[in-house]
Amino acid sequence: MIKRPDIKLLNHWVYEAHTASRDERSERWRDAELYDGDQWSQEDWDAAQNAGVTPLTINRVFPVINLLRGHQILNRYNIIAKGRTQKDATVSEVMSEGIKFVMDQSDGQFLLSECFQDQIVPGFGCAFVGQNPDPREERIMLDRRPWTEMYWDPFGGPWLDAKRCRYVFHSPWLNLEDLQAQFPAKAKEIEAAYGEMSGTMFGNAWGQDEDEADEIEDEHLSSLAPSGWARVSPSKRVRPVEMWYPVHETATFLIPPDGKVFELTDDADPRELYQIIQAYQPGSIEKVTAMVRKMRVTTFLGELVLQDMPSPCPHDLYPFVPFIGYLDRFGYPYGVPRQVRGQNEEVNKRRSMALAHLQKRRIMIEQTAIPADSSAQTIYEEANKLDGMMVLNDTGLNKIKLDEQLNLSQAQAELLHMAEAEIQEISGANDERLGQNSRVMSGNAIDKRVQRSETVTASVFDNLRRSTTILGRLVCLEIQGNWRGEKVLRITDSVTKADRYVTLNQRVQTGQGVAVLNDVTQGKYDITVSEAPHTDTVREQSANLLMETIKKSPPEVIPQLVLLWFEISNLPNKDQIMAKIRPLFGEGPGDEDKSPEEIKQEMIQRIEAEQAKKQAQEQHDTRLREAEAAKVEADVAKVMAEIQEILARTKTRGVEAGAKALDAETRHEQGKIGAFKSGVETALKVQGARGAPAPVAPEMSPSAELRQDRDWRQTYR
Asked: What angle do CA 301, 303, 308 make, to 5 degrees?
């Protein structure tokens, strides 16, 4: 086992993370200011006013960010769990609904939207997946972590991979009383530590390393001097550190043949281990001991350690989900405003300058043209008024020159348009995607420009998909570790909006003992993310495509497609309409409430019934063909017996009478044989038409004895 970090190393990690991220956090704060409308730095603002230019604020970043946010809101992702084995696949739908339930309990979709805004504005957002300490709420909790409170190993990267990132910590400002309530056993020590930190330089442990984000946040939140660990104020605020880090430990695992892994821990329930062993054949479970990463969490305030314990999560991953816009060459995140910051500032400055050129005019006047009771400033102010009046000396009009700056204003406007076009090109928010008037008239050209815009922002949404996948994986692991007993979920169908209830971990008594139905505590699942568009345009396109499919479909599938068309359409009162047309298509009033698993079982039963019916018909046809073949063989045997009997009688007759009788009898029998052959051939043709194998007809030639009698008769004559 590797030695755990002590408090000095933990504080060194804090200092390292603050120092490494100081500059890039200041840049992130500036990006957030652009979105909020703070377009001018104080230096540029003062310079513009001193030059006689009124600063204007035109926020071109705001619509770009809102376009991306709107696309994410209208096209939310669905998190789907898929089982890795056939057994897990039967519970995967229940796991998917469990993830959706946890998301709904924590307002997960709104939380994702907030994290996505952090992803595209400052460049980094963060969500937390853990356990809720309040027993009155759902045990599994999702929460947002502001980017200003999150730090990580600068050598590990912001994706917070436990295999590469040495540490991640959350450092929020808290009221002193709240921290004492979290750690009541350390309340007096926390109070003493606050007293020491607030009265000494230790209270500003990393004050010289604070970035612009910390300084401005402190100024706006409390208007107090910032400090590293504590603030001196009536509210008594402190800033503890919740440090998460992995350590290497030796662990023992049981690995059954289906690939599942069960860890043997000191506090493992013997009954669960017994059930695991009984579920597999003797000798099929492999016992493995290996060195693995184990997650730990330490909470401390300065030199005071408040808590040091293994991770409360049922996994050894960081419980944080990063949302990243872009990464620079040093591996630091940044958002969309970073690339258009210069162009946006240029738009404001050139627009302000163009307006100043339209409002102001340059005046050149000789001193002799100014009256004695006036001044050059008065003449300048009157010349720049809309209704100004200048009083000059005699012939003074010939000694004054007013220089209009309209041409300069036009030049500023042209450069302004160029800067705006660059913002659209870089951000992907062109006129076509914003829904504004476009110079392109062709519908195909408009679609291509919209597609190009989506291509520019594809990497942002690809990162969002990655973050959503990480979120789903963590929620899935939390469900398996915390939902141990029976739990009833209400599942709402995304298409029909019908509700049904499913019981998780349901224990039922069977002939072989107690069985667990919908067991979500076991199994392995792969998390996939699918896009679920909700816009009217997408739904309308889907409905039109389905209608074209209905027109080309065979009659037997049209009822199901028509019902599906009604379900995805936007018709008013469609629920009442569907309730009336379902009986016409042979569906009962409760069919729409059936789960996909029930529908699947019904389809399997129908297919099996059809296959059994087909097999029974084939067996019946086979028996008929066998009976017909047996009848033909019996008829042939009967004719051959009659021929043998005739030959025997012929030998006992006289030569002459025998010859005559034989001649007549032979002709008669040959006629019967010919008729029989015709009947047999006809029967064989009928069997061939039915598809039965044609039996081989026996050769109906005269026997050897008949030929000997014929030869004797010729000799006698």
From this structure: 70
> CA 512 to CA 278: how far, in whole Å?
12
Dihedral angle of Cα 618, 623, 627, 630, to the nearest 10 degrees: 100
What is the Cα–Cα distance from 102 to 98, expressed in whole angstroms?
6
Amino acid in the structure at residue 613: K
pLDDT of residue 683: 59
pLDDT for 293-304, tens place per residue?
999 999 999 999
User: Contact 334/328 with Cβ under 8 angstroms?
Assistant: yes
Residue 548 CA neighbour count, 13 Å, CB half:
5
- The secondary element (H helix, E strand) that includes residue 438 is none
Residue 453, C-beta contacts closer than 8 angstroms, at least 6 positions apart: 428, 429, 430, 432, 433
Q: Tell me what pLDDT residue 471 has.
A: 95
Give yes or no for a contact between 557 and 542, defined as CB atoms under 8 angstroms apart. no
pLDDT digits (tens, 9 = 90+) for 204-262: 444 444 555 566 555 544 433 344 666 655 678 899 999 999 999 998 888 887 767 88
CA pair distance 676, 320, nearest whole angstrom: 92
Q: Do strands 241-255 and 262-264 pair parallel, antiparallel, or not at all (unpaired)?
A: antiparallel
443, burial (CB in 10 Å: exposed 0-12, middle 13-18, buried 19+): exposed
> pTM score > 0.70 for this model?
no
Look up tokens 């340059």; give the residue.
362
**The token pair that represents 93 in the structure block:** 């739908």
Containing 289, the helix (H) or strand (E) segment is strand 286-301
Q: CA 100 to CA 93: how far, in whole Å?
A: 11
Are 326 and 333 in contact, with CB atoms under 8 Å apart? yes
Contact present, 167 and 13 (Cβ < 8 Å): yes
